[in-house]
Design brief:
By secondary structure, the protein is of the alpha/beta class. It contains nine helices and nine strands. The strands form three sheets. Strands 3, 4, 5, 7 and 8 form a five-stranded parallel sheet that branches. It has a two-stranded antiparallel ribbon with strand order 1-2. Strands 6-9 form a two-stranded parallel ribbon. The structure holds zinc ion.
């Protein structure tokens, strides 16, 4: 075989096999998986305090373009008039979770308040998205010993928090995350702020190029073989958080 032919054949094979591939996931947003040869790492972006019409919609557009899944912990009070965004999240393969009804801290709250704050949002989510498990992110990440037994789902903390709500600066949020991120991280952001939406999409671009795949928290746990337990607070794919 002529040498030029071998080179052309090799180049064609490289072009086919060494680019990022998109995996179709039945009816959901396809996931972008890194090219062969890159070490695959998995990460979960989580967004609290939405949905908010102008910022969450733009974030969903950007995640869809990039084949990235995420998890949205929504506040019940934010749900009316944003039902279409919630349906879109679920339809595009994202996980929707519960961030209580009015974002009151559950730590030291009366027991009936804890139950009510969780249930009111759960009822809304079931009306819009159907029956399901809507995992809890406690407001401010604050819990106490009484809360675990009252919660009928896993609870999700985080392993990386750039304090995007305080910085309100895209470049600083991106730099914080890119400087510290590791395989299995759960990153806390807020889809409520335009700077955080910009930061999230830049983070996806930069980390996909390094071989990261963006999963929902539930998918991240499956990937790491973690069996989520109800009433337990998780900080990452492999770590629980004690209180
Ligand atoms: Zn919050």
């Amino acid at each position: 075989m002529k040498r030029w032919f071998v080179w052309i054949a090799m180049a064609a094979l490289m072009a086919v096999f060494c680019r990022p591939v998109t995996v179709e996931t039945a009816g959901l947003s396809p996931l972008t998986v890194p090219a062969r040869g890159e070490e695959t790492k998995y990460i979960a972006l989580t967004f609290d305090d939405g949905p908010r019409a102008d910022t969450t919609g733009r974030l969903l557009d950007g995640l869809q373009e990039r084949g990235a899944h995420a998890t949205f912990f929504v506040i019940g009070e934010q749900v009316p008039e944003n039902e279409a965004l919630l349906k879109r999240m679920a339809a595009e393969g994202h996980q929707v979770g519960n961030h209580t009804f009015s974002h009151e801290s559950l730590q030291n709250a009366a027991e009936h308040t804890i139950i009510e704050e969780i249930q009111k949002t759960e009822v809304l989510l079931e009306e819009i998205l159907g029956e399901g498990e809507y995992w809890l992110r406690p407001p401010y990440g604050l819990v106490d010993n009484r809360i675990g037994p009252l919660v009928k789902t896993p609870m999700i903390y985080w392993s990386l928090d750039p304090e995007d709500w305080r910085l309100l600066n895209t470049d600083q949020v991106v730099a914080y995350v890119l400087g510290r991120v590791k395989n299995g991280d759960i990153i806390l952001l807020h889809d409520f702020y335009p700077t955080s939406v910009d930061a999230a999409l830049q983070i996806v671009d930069a980390l996909q190029a390094e071989g990261y795949v963006f999963l929902t928290v539930e998918e991240l746990f499956q990937q790491f073989g973690t069996q989520p337990q109800n009433g337990v607070l998780y900080a990452s794919a492999t770590e629980e958080r004690n209180w």
